[in-house]
Specification:
The complex is a heterotetramer. By secondary structure, chain A is mostly helical. Chain A has helices at about 5-25, 30-55, 75-95, 105-130, 130-150, 160-185, 190-200, 205-220, 230-235, 240-265, 270-290, 295-315, 320-345, 360-365, 365-380, 385-400, 405-430, 445-465, 465-480, 480-490, and strands spanning about 60, 70-75. Chain A has a domain at about 280-465. Chain A has a two-stranded antiparallel ribbon with strand order 1-2. The two termini of chain A are about 15 Å apart. By secondary structure, chain C is mainly α. Among the domains of chain C are: about 260-480 and about 545-565, no CATH class; about 570-615. In chain C, about 75% of the residues lie in helices and about 0% in strands. Chain C contains 25 helices and two strands. In chain C, strand 1 (about 55) and strand 2 (about 60-65) form a beta hairpin. In chain C, helix 12 crosses helix 15 and helix 13 runs antiparallel to helix 14 (about 360-375). The longest helix of chain C has about 30 residues, at about 315-345. Chain C starts with a helix and ends with a helix. The model of chain C has no long low-confidence stretch (mean pLDDT about 85). In chain D, about 65% of the residues lie in helices and about 0% in strands. Chain D has helices spanning about 1-30, 35-55, 80-110. Chain D has a single domain, classed as Helix Hairpins. Classes of the chains: A mainly alpha, B mainly alpha, C mainly alpha, D mainly alpha. Chains in contact: A-B, A-C, A-D, B-C, B-D, C-D. Chains A and C meet through helix 6, helix 8, helix 9, helix 11 and helix 16 of A and helix 5, helix 6, helix 24 and helix 25 of C.
């Protein structure tokens, strides 16, 4: 083994504590060290994925105590895949924002990068941890760095968005604690595998109610329908790359948490139906709301919420194909939505309120950015040969295999709306005349590299989906096999 | 109307919560093979730490504590970011009146003993109730007292950063030492000593001291930042 | 490397290279564009046969490529038109903006059509279908006019069709466990009755959109007329045929096998007949040549669909034959309109007049194509229409015959209108400067017109591949016995060549022409068009005597009630209503953080109260 | 004995739940941002109380071994909720600190503390 999952948490935290010191000596270090750390995390995740695919799941215990006693980190094909995705995106976000707002002073930029790094770390922690309370701690790490990052720009209305986020987040964390305590009071353990094993012992009523609290608490971060009022505001007001980080990293972690609950911890068949219902409502409301947006980032935000609804639906199908499709969707959504946020922020750079009409005629001024935005739009609509098509196909195939004909119809009808609002923007980029004479900002070279990387991934996966389908397949198998998870965590010999 | 909806939903929520917790019952243990007994016995037999809560916080669930420390660090970082102003905007501290002489003298008198108490609490965290968080908070209240009392009492920002960072680095370094020497993050690498001794529990004491310093520095930093906020 | 894959790669790489080669020089770009169109066509006709098959395996799906007789037939249309329209395009696009963009999407859509035809499984079929859709969408909005309205309308309708098809595809996969078209065909009869109806219906919606079948046609007039004419030739000539191609598969290999299929076939046939009739009326009403031809295309596609849907061997021959012919003459007509547009700057029939002397070749192409379109004997359209009528009558679809006959006759009206509007009538000063279009645009038109004549004379040139295609669907070998099938052929002997009669007619025609020419040569004089239309009165400047204004008013007044109800308007108002509804849903997010928290509480309460029922 | 337990039941859990409801009520109905933050803190305290209460064992002692009670493991109250509540309190503090700083920012930006007047971002 080349490394250990615990380094995903230890190294970034170490770096976060070191950065304030090195920043006093060498100012650029506050920007470079986070990048190095994120690159290290990505490399580590790749090397561990290689190990995992040969030797099976890594269960790493903390402080030398075997699972139920100690906290453990589980690096399985499933969690490893998400880790890889998140760290990659984290690195991309760093790369994109390396020269971001150079005019901002030293101290905020230090805070920005520390918060960004810990946002990624927290999300990775949520995914890797095998302990329910530890998950709560990581969720809070993610939330607090999220609040900080959202209100990074002092001149925008960002504090308002952050406060809404905090309001919801605080309520959510309260109910998360209640749910954890209900489970603890009944089973006397906090380890997910242990809980899953003992779950049949629990009183049915308490089981239902605790799951309800869990859904409320995690649903806030997962942006499910009535709990996602904060999300569009945050996406709009946070710096552009942070929108991508939220869509690509934080939400993924929250979805992971809810999936882990339903697939591993609880043994309700009905929970899958709940997933489908919630996902469907979220999908419909978000996509219909996105149709009438007049601000670009808000539109992207609602679209992102809608896609998460689709992911929930795919997980709710409950078969291996469904999980495969959901993971594929998560992957695609992370890449594509980041691409859209990255390129979209340059299209409406420095514009007040970021109206969609500001993109008019940008195709002439920012050709590469516009092309990338177009590729992203086409991909997220699900047009072949871009990557979005394969995931949409996977979702529909999975739904069809479970005989959910009406579900397919609804997904497809709503997808048409999605196509409409994205194409409206693309049409504006190329076929409308730019009215006002405001200056446009050319993307800096690092931002361009990040966008092009993502664009290439979209194209490559579109032409050759098998590049990741092996990972997805193993991940789906891993998630479906609940017994194996319990066995691997509880019988680790250390 | 809105209030009515809220009240009704709160009523229903309250009913369900009471229902749940009455069902659970007070002072009853529902599980037989939980981790509680394992913690108690391991703490006594292996770690030789008398305060089981401390051994849980620092060792068994030390990862939580690392996260917790990070949350505090994040809070102070985020706070700094949120309330950031360019240097020349920094205003006076918003203490309206200077305190009376009695308060000033009393504060001066109390401050060292408060810090000492805090230090005592976190150093003895593994023996008696208390620990790094509690001690750190106590120290921070000492600084709060000074900041409230003296209009121009200032804490060196850089010094806070040093404490904060070094304490954090110490925590993680101990963890990494455990990882590299024993193969598990935060694993105890020092001899555990005898129960109820000051030098018992291996790295637990050191970690709690680091936590204490870190919490004290961070809370002081947070208080300092907020107090310096003025329109 | 398999040759089909090679051709596809050539198309797609070539498209991208062509798009960017504009940076080097415009000439290089044009040449590259033609190379990318011609080389695959040559490769295809020399290298591909029925045995070539290649499989690309993905974990999710297996893409199988190969050729069937049917797809060979349609490839003839696509490849031929693509090359001809390609040359025309080079002429038309000369000096226009965004050439790279246009060439890219042109080649992409051709490649996608080729891909559709070569697909043996539904996934690659759908992939290329969608590539074709967005490539053509990007061309439809190429002009930048009414982008948000026309473009989005086209895309939404296409998406409805494509998603209906996708739904059918995943349903098929869930039942048969495979995406192969042959697997669907073999397992179709064993499905439940609901699926037996649902799957073809969904597929037909998908194909019907591209073939502009009645309630799904609303995108077509706008999209056809908004795209540059050089692409509309492809759009109407080849791209719409993809819908026909799919329909042939659905009708012949699925619906003909189950008794319930008759219902869907009748519905589609009736819809197609109504499409033909109403769009013909609409075509008559148009004053813009592009829109006129767009409606005319919809009507013609209606005939083709009727032929395919009825499903007797002869009607299928008729439909497929008409599909080819429509590709030939309608492309030529769109090219004519494009040439006129390029030279005069407008396509308004009431403005442009008297071009006959200025653009003689264009006129010739228009004349021949219109004769073919109207179905007048010596040309190709006649053969197809004859067989269609005959098959309808023989299969007792008398009401359909009446409708088709009506629209076919009414088609004469708009045929005349376009011929007269552009080329005849008085010569106005405004158009005195107009010259003939460049040769590169003329040649494709003329080639197409000549092929109309040839195909009218030697229909077996394409009846052979049609017959091969039909035999592959298990229909009897009609080619050898064709003279028994249709009166048209068996009256004239046991071979299909209508050549002797045609040559006879032509010979007489030519002789008479020569005779008249020589006899009257000495008396030839230049007649200004004003002379004939004023009866000696002196015309004032403001009086427009082209007659192309307000053509056929009495007729249109008579059919007014039929045309009042436009599906287009209903659909648009529906779309608007939906959008207004969504305007309401976004009010949920009212901006107050506290309200969001209250939503959360209500959500919690609902889950608490009903969670037990749901989770069980 | 049952009755005694019941009274404690009501007293401890009831007060914890009541604290939570008060906190929620404040957070959901009060218009002032400061009061909302206060409400959230009260909500937090209620949960912390609940957590501690769940760990209690009847007639239990503190989970600290001293020279005399090394064998009395079975009567010790559950130490885990206490450890958890420590973490939860610190996290709650962090959130409150961030919330307060956001309130300060909002006041600076909008010159008001009424939440229903701070809704520039909507729809």
């Amino acid at each position: 083994m080349v490394g250990s999952p615990v380094l995903f948490v230890a190294i970034p935290l170490l770096a976060a504590f070191i950065i304030p010191l090195t920043g006093m000596i060498w100012k650029n270090s506050v920007r470079i060290i986070p990048g190095l750390v994120l690159a290290f995390m990505f490399a580590l995740s790749i090397s561990l994925m290689g190990y995992v695919s040969e030797h099976g799941t890594i269960v790493e215990v903390i402080a030398g105590w075997k699972p139920p006693i100690g906290i453990n980190l589980v690096f399985s094909p499933f969690t490893g895949f998400l880790t890889m995705l998140m760290t990659f995106l984290g690195f991309m976000v760093w790369l994109y924002s390396y020269k971001f707002k150079r005019n901002v002073d030293f101290e905020p930029s230090m805070k920005y990068f520390i918060l960004l790094m810990l946002l990624v770390t927290g999300s990775v922690g949520i995914v890797l941890t095998g302990d329910i309370f530890n998950m709560f701690v990581f969720i809070e790490i993610v939330s607090i760095s999220g609040y900080g990052l959202t209100s990074f720009y002092t001149r925008r209305d960002s504090a308002e968005a952050a406060f809404k986020f905090l309001f919801m987040g605080a309520i959510a964390s309260t109910f998360l604690l209640i749910a954890i305590m209900i489970i603890y009071s009944q089973l006397g353990t906090l380890n997910i595998a242990d809980i899953a094993e003992k779950m049949p012992l629990m009183d049915n009523k308490l089981k239902v109610l605790s799951l309800v609290f869990f859904i409320l608490a995690i649903g806030v971060e997962a942006e499910i329908f009535p709990l996602n009022g904060w999300a569009p505001d945050v996406y709009t007001q946070a710096p552009g790359p942070i929108g991508a980080a939220f869509a690509g990293i934080v939400v993924k972690a929250a979805i992971y948490a809810s999936v882990r609950l339903v697939y591993t911890m609880y043994d309700f068949g009905g929970a899958f139906d709940l997933f489908i219902i919630i996902g469907l409502i979220t999908f419909i409301v978000a996509e219909t709301t996105a149709l009438r947006q007049d601000r670009l980032k808000r539109m992207l935000a609602y679209s992102s919420i809608g896609q998460m609804g689709l992911v929930m639906i795919a997980f709710g199908i409950g078969t291996k194909e469904g999980v495969y499709a959901a993971l594929f969707l998560m992957f695609n959504h992370a890449i594509i939505k980041s691409l859209l946020f990255f390129s979209g922020s340059y299209l409406v750079f420095n514009k007040k309120n970021k109206y969609i009409k500001h993109v008019n005629g940008m195709g002439k001024y920012l050709p590469i950015t516009s092309v990338l935005f177009t590729i992203g739009s086409f991909a997220i609509i699900g047009l072949p040969p871009f990557s979005g098509f394969w995931s949409k196909l996977a979702v529909l195939t999975a739904a069809a295999d479970s005989k959910m004909v009406i579900l397919i119809a609804v997904i497809l009808i709503i997808s048409i709306l999605e196509a409409v609002y994205y194409l409206r923007v693309v049409n504006r980029i190329y076929f409308f005349d730019k009215k006002e004479k405001t200056e446009t900002q050319k993307p800096s070279i690092n931002a361009l590299i990040a966008m092009i990387c993502l664009g290439i991934i979209v194209l490559v996966i579109g032409f050759y989906p098998d590049l990741i389908s092996g990972y997805l397949d193993r991940a789906a198998t891993d998630l479906m096999d609940k017994g194996n998870y319990i066995k691997e965590v509880l019988t680790i010999n250390k | 109307m809105k209030i009515a909806i809220i009240l009704i939903s709160l009523g229903i929520l309250g009913f369900y919560l009471m229902d749940i917790f009455f069902g659970i019952g007070f002072g009853v243990q529902h599980f037989s093979n939980g981790v509680k007994d394992l913690y108690l016995s391991n703490s006594k037999d292996i770690l030789k730490v008398s305060n089981v809560v401390t051994s849980i916080v620092v060792n068994f669930r030390g990862f939580d504590t690392l996260g917790e420390v990070t949350v505090l660090f994040l809070a102070s970082t985020a706070l700094g970011g949120i309330l950031y102003k360019k240097r020349h905007h920094v205003g006076e501290r918003s203490v309206l009146f200077p305190a009376s002489r009695i308060v000033m003298s009393g504060a001066k008198l109390l401050f060292p003993s408060i810090v000492l108490l805090g230090a005592y609490v976190f150093i003895h965290g593994h023996l008696s109730p208390g620990g790094g968080f509690q001690g750190g908070t106590i120290i921070a209240t000492g600084f709060l007292l000074m900041l409230l009392t003296y209009r121009n009492y200032s804490v060196s920002h850089n010094r806070l950063v040093y404490f904060e960072s070094l304490a954090g680095i110490l925590f993680i370094s101990i963890g990494l030492v455990g990882y590299f020497s024993k193969g598990s993050f935060l694993e105890n690498v020092l001899p555990v000593g005898n129960m109820n001794d000051l030098f018992s529990g291996g790295v637990i004491g050191i970690i709690y001291i680091a936590v204490g310093f870190k919490v004290a520095a961070e809370l002081t930093g947070i208080i300092y930042t907020v107090l310096h906020e003025k329109d | 490397m398999n040759i089909i894959i090679l051709i596809l790669i050539l198309f797609f790489l070539g498209a991208i290279i062509t798009a960017f080669s504009g940076k080097i020089s415009a000439l290089v770009q044009d040449i590259l564009f033609l190379i990318v169109l011609v080389v695959p066509a040559v490769l295809f006709f020399t290298g591909v046969d029925m045995n070539t098959e290649s499989i690309i395996t993905f974990s999710q799906a297996q893409l199988t490529f190969g050729m069937t007789p049917l797809s060979y037939y349609f490839s003839l249309i696509v490849m031929g038109l693509a090359v001809l329209a390609g040359f025309y395009t080079v002429g038309q696009m000369n000096g226009k903006k965004r050439k790279g963009y246009y060439y890219l999407n042109y080649i992409l859509s051709i490649g996608a059509m080729f891909g559709i035809l070569m697909s043996k499984d539904f996934i690659s079929f759908f992939i290329f279908w969608e590539i074709m859709t967005w490539a053509s969408y990007l061309i439809v909005i190429y002009n930048g006019k009414n982008v948000q309205k026309i473009g989005i309308k086209y895309f939404v309708m296409s998406a409805i069709g494509a998603y209906a098809m996708l739904m059918a595809i995943v349903l098929i996969h869930s039942i048969t466990g495979s995406f192969l078209i042959t697997d669907l065909i073999s397992e179709y009869t064993g499905m439940t009755q609901g699926m037996q109806l649902l799957i073809p219906a969904l597929l037909l919606i998908g194909f019907g959109v591209k073939a502009a079948l009645m309630p799904l046609h609303i995108w077509a007039p706008d999209a056809y007329s908004n795209a540059p004419m050089s692409y509309t030739a492809i759009f109407s000539g080849a791209l719409s045929k993809m819908g026909i191609y799919g329909m042939v598969i659905v009708f012949l290999s699925l619906l003909s096998k189950v008794p319930e299929g008759a219902l869907i076939r009748d519905i589609v046939a009736w819809l197609a007949a109504i499409t033909a009739a109403i769009s013909t009326l609409w075509a008559i009403k148009q004053d813009d040549a592009k829109r006129l031809l767009a409606y005319s295309s919809i009507g013609q596609l209606g005939y083709i669909i009727i032929g395919v849907a009825i499903g007797t061997p002869m009607s299928i021959i008729a439909g497929l034959f008409l599909a080819f012919m429509h590709g030939v003459f309608k492309s030529a007509l769109f090219m004519v309109v494009g040439a006129v547009e390029k030279q005069t700057g407008t396509t308004d029939l009431t403005e442009v007049t008297g071009l006959i002397r200025k653009m003689p070749w264009t006129f010739l192409a228009a004349l021949i194509s219109i004769i073919a379109l109207a179905g007048i004997p010596p040309l190709g359209g006649f053969v197809g229409k004859w067989m269609l009528y005959e098959s309808l009558i023989l299969s007792d679809h008398f009401m359909l015959v009446i409708l088709v006959f009506f629209s076919s006759t009414a088609a004469f009206l708009y045929c005349y209108k376009i011929l007269f509007g552009f080329f005849l009538g008085q010569e106005e000063k405004e158009w005195a400067h107009v010259k003939e279009a460049p040769a590169i645009m003329i040649v494709p038109m003329v080639i197409l017109s000549i092929s109309s004549i040839v195909l009218g004379t030697y229909p077996q040139l394409i009846l052979k591949p049609i017959n091969a295609a039909m035999m592959s669907f298990g229909l009897p070998d009609t080619y050898g016995n064709l003279w028994k099938e249709s009166i048209l052929f068996n009256k004239w002997g046991n071979q299909i060549a209508l050549a002797p009669i045609m040559y006879g007619i032509m010979l007489v025609f030519v002789i008479v022409t020569i005779f008249l020419f020589f006899r009257n040569r000495s008396r030839t004089r230049y007649v200004t068009t004003k002379d004939i239309s004023t009866s000696g009165e002196i015309i004032k400047e403001h009086e427009n005597l082209t007659f192309s204004r307000g053509f056929f008013q009495p007729f249109l007044r008579a059919v007014e009630p039929v045309m009042k109800r436009q599906i287009d308007k209903y659909m648009l108002s529906f779309a608007k209503g939906v959008e207004d509804l969504f305007e309401f849903t976004r009010r949920i997010y009212n901006g107050n953080g506290q309200t969001y928290a209250i939503y959360a509480m209500i959500f919690l309460i609902i889950l608490l109260m009903f969670g037990k029922n749901l989770l069980g | 004995m049952e009755k005694y337990l019941d009274i404690l039941n009501v007293a401890i859990y009831g007060s914890a739940v009541l604290l939570m409801l008060i906190g929620l009520y404040g957070a959901l109905t009060k218009k002032s941002l400061i009061k909302i933050v206060l409400g959230l803190s009260i909500l937090d305290s209620g949960v912390h109380l609940l957590m501690i209460a769940i760990g209690y064992l009847k007639d239990g002692t503190a989970p600290i071994f001293s020279a005399g009670n090394e064998e009395k493991m079975s009567v010790m109250v559950d130490p885990i909720p206490q450890a958890l509540v420590l973490t939860a309190i610190v996290i709650g503090f962090g959130v409150t600190a961030v919330a307060i700083s956001l309130v300060i920012r909002l006041y600076r930006h909008h010159n008001t503390l009424r939440i229903d007047e701070i809704k520039k971002l909507k729809w």
